[in-house]
Amino acid sequence: MTTNRISSALRGALLPLVAALVLAGCASTADLSSGVTTPAQFREQAAANVSSTPVQADGAWWRAFNDGELDTLVERAAVANTTVQQAAARLAEARAVARAVDADRSVQVGLGAGGIRGAGLDRGDGSKRAASLITAGATVSYEVDLFGRLSGASNAAALDAQSREALLQSARLLVQAEVAQSYLALRALDDERAIVRDTVEAYRGTLSVTQSRYRAGDLAELDVVRVQTELASNESDALALDRQRAQLEHALAVLTGAVPSQFSVSTAEWTTALPSIPAGLPSTVLERRPDVAAAQRTVEAAQARVGVAKTAWFPTFSLTGAGGYASSDLGDLLKWSARSWGIGALASLPLLDGGRREADLKGASARLDGALVSYREQVLVAFREVEDQLAALRLLDEQSVVQARAVASARRATVLSDARYRNGYVSQLDLLDARRSELQNRRQALQVKSAQYQATVALIRSLGGGWDAPAVVGEAAGKPVVAALR
């Protein structure tokens, strides 16, 4: 009867506390969508659908460029890139931690043996003589997770592992994009080097003719010096481009896990296809971005740890059991008569801890606030990156059209200047200016083309590795992207 009264009194004292803490926990759910409401589609694109280059179903977006050498480089980087390997190691570590934390929820079983000798081990028989006690057996313990402390910690660790998994995907996507951009920049440099080398050869021919005419007395020395200046200037540009190519080739070597001295990319014609991006991309394509998913998992883990910190005000309950043998004589230890067992229960509730629990809760809440801010920032950065690249592609398309007209006009001007120079109507300086303008415009056109490829890769990375958006049903369109991500 006394035991029942004590139990009833404990329940009466604890139930109000339990109810208050549960209500507090329910009221502290993090609002991921606050301040991140997004439009149905990106501002820089029209709503009409147009045909686009399809993306591989397995996520191999780089194959849309239809370049076998690019495919080979990306596949090598997927295996040997050190950044990806580091991210994979961090994921393995996070999964191991999650398994270790989850193990606390299981029954703990152990084996043990020990011996002790001393006087007064058993006061029951009134003996003060020295005696021995030898034990061997198994112990079993289990913490009853009434208030979710263990399950909350396990859930938080599992969310950490999911965040690391998303970060591994983000690292892979980043490396794939870096490989593609470096390779495409190298191909653009090869074409630019070819243009400059052709120009150098042209100036060498012009210099030879000019020197002959100078020796014949038809031209002044100034004309020879002008051609020599242009030739040297273009030779210098060609060497600068060679240096840039070597640096890009070395960067590709590191990205693919190779030693730069043992790595090379052959010089070939730039035939890489430029994928077309569909218009009217919905904002929900950002759901595929792994860095956004990682930030969300970090918020959810921080929120789970706030709940774990709150359970510090609850008592803990543990069940224990032990069974084995105990004897004062080693020879009798394993006899049936020496068997022993025991079961127990332990309830623990700290009362005074100097404010440790309150400080832990405030710290967990502060980390949750920081994770929320980081998440919202990541979402905003994602939208900015997509809008940046969409704007870049739109303007680059317009610029390429204008630049093509400039190249055509510059070529025509060179032809006309050459003809007029041969007939003595214009000076050599006019001809050199026309050639210089043509070279500048051809290089500018190539740089615009290269920028289009770079922006396309950057857009694909910003979209999370593709542009096939998940289906949006009913009222989901136009809602905060964070709501869809949940």
UniProtKB/TrEMBL annotation:
Residues 429-456 form a coiled coil. The keyword Coiled coil applies. Residues 1-24 form the signal peptide. Keywords: Coiled coil, Lipoprotein, Membrane, Palmitate, Signal, Transmembrane, Transmembrane beta strand. It is found in: Cell membrane. Pfam families: OEP. Transmembrane segments: none annotated. It is a lipid-anchor. InterPro entries: MdtP/NodT-like, OMP_efflux. The keyword Membrane applies. Belongs to the outer membrane factor (OMF) (TC 1.B.17) family. This is Efflux transporter outer membrane subunit. It comes from Variovorax humicola.
